[in-house]
Design goal:
globular; 10 helices; 579 residues; seven-stranded antiparallel sheet; eight-stranded parallel barrel; Immunoglobulin-like; single chain
Length: 579
């Protein structure tokens, strides 16, 4: 089956969308989707793929209630009522279980214009544009990683399914310029990092239609969206070396073969592999043992990856990419893929704590992408602030190499948080949850939101310390701190001071014992608590939530973003003055 936006269609007219329910609790290897459907005797029902406007039927589970008869491509109803339709997906073994239900709605009449194309999620104000570089000059963007591990189902910090995020889009738009979403394709794991069908954009986070609506809601508020691109490896279909077909519509269809796999993959002896070994540059990390590694020296793999990125950009309307496991293949391939897709923004996950190594990889990629600054993460945060060793904050990571333009700063991500065996910054260690260390979390977030580079706020931190992080973002934006800002800094035993110069003013950051010093004259206070104090000057763009646009205002698009003109003043979609 593996449809993209599917549910139940009644009488060829009324559509009841199915929601993802996770794995079948009774086992059997099924992924399960649920639709609540109201039917009457004499009606007929079908499974319906809304994206492709196709209807069909699959085998009924033996435990299905009486009152439904399978005939051809439909189920005929003989008993009126409200029913739960469980669509159970398993390769070549799809089934439908129907049980007595509750909370049935009326469905949507797809004959009234809501049933075609992209799953009914139109209205996106952004037309994809081509950019000469995916590394913006003097970038003032602030990024949000809008998920954590298993946040599709875990509610500890609020789940981040597409519909949940859409409900928070207005607030997110007010404070963030970039939102990084988890991999959105059909995958063998909960989070999308074992991709199986790149083109199938229904995932554990929700249906394709919900994803399109989320991206549209973020675009409507002026926020750009980054796709998490997992092209180092892919999950097999049913054996070690077979794969699902990949259909990217206008950008091409592909049937991956075993010869597209690297010659040194774990699948040796399971089939004819490719002729090239992994060409990654990150030591033993080049090989990914949990899936088959694509041979990026194979021209067919290259063509598939280029088509995938164009599909994400032009069909799904993503604005940029985060490249997962980028150390698994030579970064020159990243350059080539970006040259084809021409996105607004790109960042690599290149997990290496050596700033010189990261700098070299940026150079090898032709300076076509940013990278997460793991060097700063380890030196300034984990081995610096977390250990009261504030001298490590000075000239940390790529900034110390003159490469702040290419650095994405972060405190935690889905891998380091709750999954790191030594999480001195975030996550849990020996049963102690470090995120509850308020003093540490505020210092680290203030650091990344003050420094040159592009800061990326982690969802659990945003969820738990939202008021404080909002104040920090306000300070950064007021001063106009950007990825190439200059900085004056000092450090000593137990303290750190920095003055960062922006387009409109300055941010002053005091950490450790320096936080006890008096506020600098003429500066506004963003936060002063314990071992952190952050001050700012400047009248740059501010976040104004729930801004009302008057009838005299004029909306217009520029560079793919929404702006509002009121007289001689121009505001972005969040109500922030930009001119």
């Amino acid at each position: 089956m593996f449809a993209q936006d599917y549910g139940i269609l009644v009488n060829g007219k009324m559509y009841f969308e199915a929601s993802y329910e996770g794995a079948d609790p009774y086992g059997g290897g099924y992924e399960q989707y649920l639709a609540h459907v109201q039917v009457n005797s004499g009606d007929y029902c079908q499974l319906y793929d809304r994206s492709n406007q196709s209807a069909w039927a699959v085998t009924l589970d033996n435990s299905t209630v009486s009152g439904f008869t399978l005939s051809g491509d439909r189920y005929t109803v003989s008993v009126s009522g409200c029913y739960d339709f469980y669509i159970k997906i398993k390769y070549q073994s799809d089934q439908l279980y129907i049980g007595n239900g509750s909370n049935c709605g009326n469905g949507e009449d797809i004959t009234q214009g809501g049933g075609g194309g992209q799953g009914g999620g139109g209205g996106d104000p952004v037309t994809p544009q081509d950019y000469a570089s995916a590394v913006p000059d003097q970038c003032t963007d602030i990024m949000l990683q809008a998920f954590y591990w298993n946040s599709n189902s875990d509610n500890t910090y609020g789940n981040s399914q597409w519909n949940t995020l859409k409900g928070q889009a207005s607030e997110i738009n007010s404070y963030f310029d970039l939102v990084w979403l988890p991999p959105s394709c059909n995958s063998n794991d909960q989070m999308g990092y074992l991709p199986k069908e790149y083109h199938n954009q229904t995932s554990k986070m929700g249906m394709k239609s919900a994803l399109i609506q989320l991206i549209s809601a973020l675009h409507s508020g002026g926020t750009r969206v980054l796709a998490d691109v997992v092209i180092n490896h892919a999950a097999n279909k049913s054996s070690w070396v077979d794969f699902m077909d990949q259909n990217f519509g206008d950008y091409g269809s592909f049937s991956p073969q075993s010869t597209w796999i690297t010659s040194n993959d774990e699948a040796q002896g399971k089939g004819q592999l490719g002729s090239h070994p992994d060409d990654g540059q990150n030591g033993n990390d080049a090989n990914y043992p949990s899936a088959r590694d694509w041979d990026h020296q194979n021209t067919s793999v290259q063509a598939m990856c280029k088509a995938y990125l164009k599909f994400l950009k032009y069909t799904m309307k993503y604005d940029g990419f985060r490249f997962d496991y980028a150390g698994g293949y030579h970064v020159s391939h990243t350059h080539d893929y970006l040259a084809e897709a021409k996105p607004y923004f790109s960042v690599m996950e290149y997990w290496n704590g050596d700033a010189n190594h990261l700098k070299s990889r940026i150079d090898d990629a032709g300076k076509s992408t940013l990278t997460f600054d793991f060097a700063a993460y380890y030196s300034a945060l984990r081995d610096g602030i977390a250990q009261n060793n504030y001298s490590n904050c000075a000239n940390a990571g790529l900034r110390g190499k003159g490469y702040s333009k290419y650095a994405v700063m972060f405190v935690d991500n889905h891998d380091t948080f709750n999954r790191d065996i030594n999480p001195d910054v975030g996550g849990s260690k020996d049963g102690q949850t470090t995120i509850n260390n308020r003093a540490l979390m505020l210092q680290c977030n203030a650091y990344i939101l003050s420094m040159p580079g592009v800061p990326c706020v982690f969802w659990p931190h945003w969820y738990k310390y939202k008021t404080e992080i909002k104040a920090m973002i306000t300070a950064r934006r007021a001063a106009g701190i950007h990825s190439e800002s200059s900085i004056d800094e000092q450090s000593g035993s137990g303290w750190y001071k920095a003055t960062v110069h922006g387009k409109y003013g300055n941010v002053i950051l005091y950490l450790g014992s320096a936080a006890n010093e008096a506020a600098p004259s003429g500066y506004n206070q963003a936060i002063k608590e314990g071992k952190v104090a952050m001050y700012y000057t400047g009248n740059g763009p501010q976040a104004v939530e729930n801004t009302t646009v008057t009838p005299q205002s004029e909306k217009f698009m520029q560079d793919g973003r929404l702006f509002i003109r009121c007289g001689e003043q121009v505001f972005d979609a969040q109500g922030r003055l930009v001119q």
